[in-house]
C-alpha cells in the first residue's frame, strides 16, 4: 500500500531513542535455524506498483538489486533469499481515487505485473493459490508468490469481477483502502456504509465461497466488527499494527485484536514507522507540512530529499524506530490475540523507503526473529509467526470454501459503487 501523511497532528519533540539490547550470536543463529525450516510468509509487499508505475513496467528490476536503481527499491530476489522469504503476498494496489471500469483495468495490469514477475524468474518464484502450493514451493527453495487486491474499490461494485480476480490467482482482498465505499467504511475517511452495507456482507460471503481471504487492514473499526461477524472463515489483517502502542486509525485496538484471535484469524504486523511510533508519526506530519509549504516532495527521506528538507532533518532529528519497536508490536498482538494469531506484513516498497533502523529491505526479517529469540520466544512460537499461522488460516479458508462449493455464485451488483 502507498502511504500518505495526514495533516492535523501537533508536532512533538522527538522521544528519547529506544534502548535496545543487541541479540547475541546464539539468538541470531537460532533465528536462522527457525527460518531455515519455517521461512517468512509476508502479508503485503508493493513491488508490483513500484515496477508498474516507477520502473517502466520492467520486472527485470527484481534481479538488479533495488538499492542501485534511480528510485531505490526495498525488494529484490537476492534480498528475499537473504531474508528467508518463503512466501509473499504481492499487493496489486491502485489509488483509491481510481474507480469504475478504470479501477478494474489498472488492477488487471497490476496482476499482470505479478504474473510476469513470477514467470520471468522461475528459478526463484512460483505462483501459489493454496496452502499446499505454498508448502510445495517453499520445499523447492523458491518463494511462493500470492496476490492480494488492496481495496474493494477495485471490483467496481461487481461480484463477477471479484470472481475473475480469484480465477487469476488473487488470494485476498482488503475491503477498503484510504477512502470509504458505499458498502464498506475506511479507517481514514468519513463513514458512509455503517460498517458494512448489505452488499458489503454479500461481498464477504462470496469471498468465503470462493476461498478468498477477507483482509481488514485499512477498514474502520465498525467495518472490522461487521466483517468478523459476517465471515465464516478466519479474517486477516495483512499489514496492521497495534493501536495501543501507536495511536493511529490504521492500527487495530485491543478489543479487535482479541476478536480476530477469537475468529481464528491473524494480524500481520506492519513495519511502517508511522504505524509503529506515535513520535515518528508526529515528526513526519510536521515534515510533510514543511515540504508542502515549499512545494517539494515530502515522501523522500535521507540524502535524496530536497535540500531544504535535508536541512530540516538536521534540525529536527527523526525519532528512532528500531527492530525492538517492531518486536514490541508483535509481542503486543501475541499478548492480546494469542501467539497463534500474529504474523508479518512488512509493507515493503509501500512505505516510501522508510523502515525501522537497519531494516530497509526484505533481508531484514531475520533481525526481527533474532530480537524475539532474545526476548525468550520459543522456536515453536517463532515458527507460528513466520509461516505457521498464515498457513493455518489459509487452510481453514479453503475448508470453508469447500463446504460452500454447492452454493451458486452470487450475481449481486452494487450500482451505488459506480
UniProtKB/TrEMBL annotation:
Pfam families, A to Z: Peptidase_M19 (PF01244)
Keyword Metal-binding: no
PROSITE patterns xrefs: RENAL_DIPEPTIDASE_2
InterPro entries in UniProt: Metal_Hydrolase, Pept_M19
Keywords: Signal
Signal peptide from the UniProt entry: 1-19
GO BP field: proteolysis
GO MF annotation list: metallodipeptidase activity
Full protein name: Membrane dipeptidase
Protein species of origin: Sphingomonas glacialis
Amino acid at each position: 500500500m502507498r502511504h500518505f501523511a495526514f495533516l492535523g497532528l501537533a508536532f512533538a519533540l522527538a522521544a528519547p531513542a529506544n534502548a535496545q539490547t543487541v541479540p547475541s550470536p546464539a539468538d541470531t543463529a537460532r533465528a536462522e535455524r527457525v527460518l531455515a525450516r519455517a521461512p517468512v510468509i509476508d502479508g503485503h509487499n508493493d513491488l508490483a506498483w513500484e515496477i508498474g508505475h516507477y520502473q517502466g513496467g520492467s520486472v527485470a528490476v527484481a534481479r538488479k538489486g533495488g538499492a542501485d536503481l534511480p528510485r531505490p527499491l526495498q525488494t529484490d530476489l537476492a534480498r528475499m533469499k537473504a531474508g528467508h522469504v518463503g512466501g509473499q503476498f504481492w499487493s496489486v494496489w491502485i489509488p483509491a481515487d481510481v474507480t469504475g471500469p478504470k479501477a478494474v483495468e489498472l488492477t488487471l495490469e497490476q496482476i499482470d505485473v505479478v504474473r510476469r514477475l513470477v514467470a520471468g524468474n522461475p528459478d526463484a518464484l512460483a505462483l501459489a493459490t493454496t496452502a499446499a502450493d505454498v508448502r510445495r514451493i517453499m520445499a523447492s527453495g523458491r518463494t511462493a508468490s500470492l496476490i492480494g487486491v488492496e481495496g474493494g474499490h477495485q471490483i467496481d461494485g461487481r461480484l463477477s469481477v471479484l470472481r475473475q480476480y480469484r480465477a487469476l490467482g488473487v488470494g485476498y482482498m482488503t475491503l477498503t483502502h484510504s477512502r470509504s465505499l458505499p458498502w464498506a467504511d475506511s479507517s481514514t475517511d468519513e463513514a458512509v456504509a455503517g460498517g458494512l452495507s448489505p452488499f458489503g456482507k454479500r461481498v464477504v460471503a462470496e469471498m468465503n465461497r470462493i476461498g478468498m481471504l477477507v483482509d481488514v487492514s485499512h477498514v474502520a473499526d465498525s467495518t472490522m466488527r461487521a466483517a468478523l461477524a459476517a465471515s465464516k472463515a478466519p479474517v486477516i489483517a495483512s499489514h496492521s499494527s497495534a493501536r495501543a502502542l501507536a495511536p493511529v486509525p490504521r492500527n487495530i485496538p485491543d478489543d479487535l485484536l482479541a476478536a480476530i484471535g477469537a475468529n481464528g484469524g491473524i494480524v500481520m504486523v506492519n513495519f511502517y514507522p508511522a504505524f509503529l511510533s506515535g513520535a515518528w508519526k508526529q515528526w513526519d506530519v510536521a515534515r510533510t507540512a514543511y515540504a508542502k509549504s515549499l512545494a517539494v516532495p515530502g515522501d523522500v527521506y535521507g540524502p535524496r530529499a530536497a535540500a531544504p528538507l535535508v536541512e530540516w532533518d538536521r534540525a529536527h532529528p527523526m525519532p528512532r524506530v528500531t527492530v525492538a519497536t517492531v518486536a514490541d508490536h508483535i509481542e503486543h498482538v501475541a499478548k492480546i490475540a494469542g501467539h497463534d494469531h500474529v504474523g508479518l506484513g512488512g509493507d515493503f516498497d509501500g512505505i516510501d523507503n522508510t523502515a525501522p533502523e537497519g531494516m530497509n529491505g526484505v533481508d531484514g526479517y531475520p533481525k526481527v526473529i533474532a530480537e524475539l529469540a532474545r526476548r525468550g520466544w520459543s522456536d515453536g512460537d517463532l515458527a507460528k509467526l513466520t509461516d505457521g499461522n498464515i498457513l493455518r488460516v489459509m487452510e481453514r479458508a479453503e475448508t470453508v470454501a469447500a463446504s460452500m462449493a454447492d452454493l451458486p455464485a452470487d450475481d449481486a451488483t452494487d450500482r451505488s459503487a459506480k
